[in-house]
Amino acid sequence: ESDQGMHKGIATGGLWGNQTLRVENLHLENMREGVYTSHESKVWSLLEVRDCSFNGSYLDIASIGDGGTVRLNNCTFQNSTTEGIFCATWDQAEVEIKGCTFTRSNNIYSTKAINLSGIQNAHIENCNFFQSTTGISMAYCGPTLIKNCLFDNQRNVALSAPVSSIVSIESCQFKNQAIALKTSTSDVQIEMVDSVIEPVEDCSFRISTIASLSVHNCDLAKGENGVVNILNNPNCPNNVHLDMANNYWGTVEPDSIDAWIHDRYDTDDVCYWVDYEPFEAVSTPTEKPSLGGFKAMFR
User: Fold this and answer.
1) Nearest-CA neighbor of 141 among 128, 125, 123, 157?
2) What pTM does this model have?
3) 72, 123, 136, 238: least surrounded by Cβ within 10 Å?
4) How far apart are the C-alpha atoms of 124 and 121, rounded to whole Å?
């Protein structure tokens, strides 16, 4: 229908006696929530959405759980409303998102493609993220794999891990970002390999505090605040070395790389040293991201 106001398209869950919901080959638009599930009664649950398209809603997928699984496959998400989110899940045992495309105009305030909170295990693969304010935001998440994804033109940050998460990034591409990756607390662990960060406005990595950061075999980009910008913090929760060796920094001059990193070598007000040597003289990633999700926009 042309306008669903604040209504939910499909609403179900353990609170109403449902344990499994499968949605296939539907188009939903102009909703408060397109698909809404709630499993707060601690029953096992499965939400599976496949080959669907969403447009113009505040929340396309909203799933609250105490355990359970969410799977999204080969779906397209477009034009969430102001401050909207395409997919938000809370307290799931497992979230799997594959072959999906998320597109939102950058002139909308504070939009996110995916928001994960309290997820025990997550896997996001072969997805494309175009525009919006934030690509993926996660908090209190267990092991999360983000693989073979394209992030293009997020206004704020492609990937935000503000608190207590474990993230692995493999064979991803980050283009036209303000910031590619941002963290805020000392209990975040991030590993990135075989990925490309292309032009950035601010920096590739903006770090307040972090437990560990390992970046290898990647192309890194310089913005107005260099490549790695670690914020000053006079009360350092941990003084550790961040392993960023064997990457291509866009230069073969170590003095330039030094100048593009703001870390504890520059000031004692910063909590971390960045170890970047040895570094590569040429572009390093061996596997380029797939554009399969992009093709799905035109199926």
Assistant:
1) 123
2) 0.90
3) 238
4) 10
